[in-house]
Amino acid sequence: MNTFQISGNLIDVLQQEIYPATLHIVDGRIRRIVRNNDTTAAGYILPGFTDAHVHVESSMLIPSEFARLAVVHGTIATVSDPHEIANVMGVKGVEYMLNNGKQVPFKFSFGAPSCVPATVFETAGATVTVNDIKHLLQRDDIGYLTEMMNFPGVLHQDPDVMAKIAAAKAVNKPVDGHAPSLRGDDARRYIAAGISTDHECFTLEEAQEKLSYGMHILIREGSAAKNFEALIPLLHDHPEKIMFCSDDKHPDNLEEGHINQLVKRALAKGIDLFKVLRAACVNPVLHYKLHNGLLRENDPADFIVIDNTQDFNVLATYIEGQKVAEKGRTLIPSAPCAPVNNFVCETKQPADFRISVDGSDRIKVKVIGALDGQLITLKQEALLPVENGALQGDTMQDVLKLTVVNRYRPSAPAMAFIHGFGLKQGAIASSVAHDSHNIIAVGTDDEQICAAVNAVIAAQGGISVAGKAGVEVLPLPVAGLMSNLDGYTIAAQYSALDKAAKALGSTLASPFMTLSFMALLVIPHLKLSDLGLFDGDNFSFTTID
Q: Cβ distance 24 to 31 under 8 Å?
């Protein structure tokens, strides 16, 4: 029998009370909570944090390594959508995440991916059918139906979409939403179909409207999409309906912090402690029916210890009575894991990225406008030069070539132009390209774009930087999305490539994360898939000119 006691100032979020107490823990559960009169008790004990919506794959770490970094910041659980690896490998990819996550003491709640592929306008590596969804939802280790990105399908009552939602309702499991900018009657109908959350609100007004229809709002702050400042006022008036999430977080950012950062920022804005902790610790547990302890007798002994409620530094993290992190150091050992993949792609030539045109010195073209800190893009135009019958980018206008290369079968690259990356030379490329995860690259000339793409192909997945100094690559052998190496090592290697991309001139806070979303067709307004330039407003392909 494993028995121990821990004392401190207990923060009871459910009862909104703080008092000195001793927790008596037996075999991973809190058997007794004894109040005491120790007014000098050191430290504060509170429930661990939960990320209410995250794609673990975006950390470039397998679940077991994600957990090793997350627990240092007081995170004990995630509501994890595995649709990234599902788009590459289907149900086998979901099973890979489930099995790997079970290798470590951490509370992953994975969902059944609702939209694989995300659209019919791109090439994915797999399909997750209605029957697949039904079988997954029958599993005890699948907690919910993941973000329903196909909101047009919901509004038009597409049979497959409605069957997936019905399958979740039949087993009493929540349905996550994804409906950026959906307003008015369309938003009301989408929510009425049974969709309970949204993490895609960009404005306070949009979130308030969706709250009025009964939806839970997730305040997202990831490596690329940052909505905390716009949405945090909601927590004052709707503490029971708000959760915190990261959605997509690169390894360097995860090493720096997680949900604890949002807690500190919310407290610094003067928001009530109990409201903040309700969003960070309690609401995800109640909404998703998680098996996290909330500091009640007979609950699992899941909790964190902090120094004080001003600095909020995490001193220790416990999951089911096991100390998994202490004073900034993870206590979870790495779990050996063999890579799995789906990568069939031929080496490219610079000529493959040429955009041939007839006549004219300059041509007006459509341009994708990338926005730092946002997933949405702008529809822009530029007048670009023609040299030797080929359309060129223009670094003076910050208009560069963007390409998406099919990684599942031999195919000609899709080409477009993009503004906002700021590269003055070279190129960057990645096989992390939401949602189908073909290879995406941006660069100043065909030779460097080709070099960056070929480095990713040679590694069978990864991120790369090509410049005057040569080509650097971080291999991602697990589905072309994740590394199976030590998380801290990968964080350092990623930081080096991020620095190299910025040395080429990029002014983006997270160039690779922003790049990965330039193929995300379900977010307006203009994107590029392996099949061509896509108009997200009309939900159809369009031409470059």
A: yes
Tokens of 44: 């504060």
Q: How far apart are CA 356 and CA 392, in angstroms?
A: 10
Please give the structure tokens belonging to residue 531. Answer: 């099949």
Helices 63-70 and 91-101, axial angle in degrees (round to 10): 40
pLDDT at 374: 84
Q: How far is CA 356 from the centre of its chain?
A: 37
Q: Are 363 and 545 in contact (CB under 8 A)?
A: yes
Strands 322-326 and 75-80: unpaired
Residues 56-101 pLDDT 10s: 999 999 999 999 999 999 999 999 999 999 999 999 999 999 999 9
H or E element in which residue 279 lies? none
What is the tens place of the pLDDT at every residue in 8-40? 999 999 999 999 999 999 999 999 999 988 767
Q: For 323, what's the count of Cα atoms within 13 Å in the CB-facing half-sphere?
A: 13
Nearest Cα neighbor of 494 from 247, 257, 251 is 251
The residue with tokens 């109640």 is: 286
What tokens appear for 15 in the block? 């009862």
Angle CA 405–411–415, to nearest 5:
45
Whole-number Å distance between alpha carbons of 106 and 488: 18
The answer to whether 144 and 173 are in contact (CB under 8 A) is: yes
Compute CA 294 distance to the chain's CA centroid, rounded to the nearest angstrom.
25
Tokens linked to 183 = 């307003």
What is the model's pLDDT at position 1? 67
Average per-residue pLDDT for the chain: 96
Q: What is the pLDDT of residue 2?
A: 87
Please name the amino acid found at residue 278.
R
Can you tell me whether residue 462 is helix, strand or coil? Answer: strand
The rounded Cα 366 to chain-centroid distance in angstroms is: 28
0.90 exceeded by the pTM?
Answer: yes
- In whole angstroms, what is the distance from residue 442 CA to residue 413 CA? 12
List pLDDT tens digits, range 137-187: 999 999 999 999 989 899 999 999 999 999 999 999 999 999 988 999 999
Q: Are strands 526-529 and 532-535 parallel, antiparallel or unpaired?
A: antiparallel
Q: Which residue has the tokens 């900034």?
A: 328
- Tokens 């203009």 belong to residue: 526
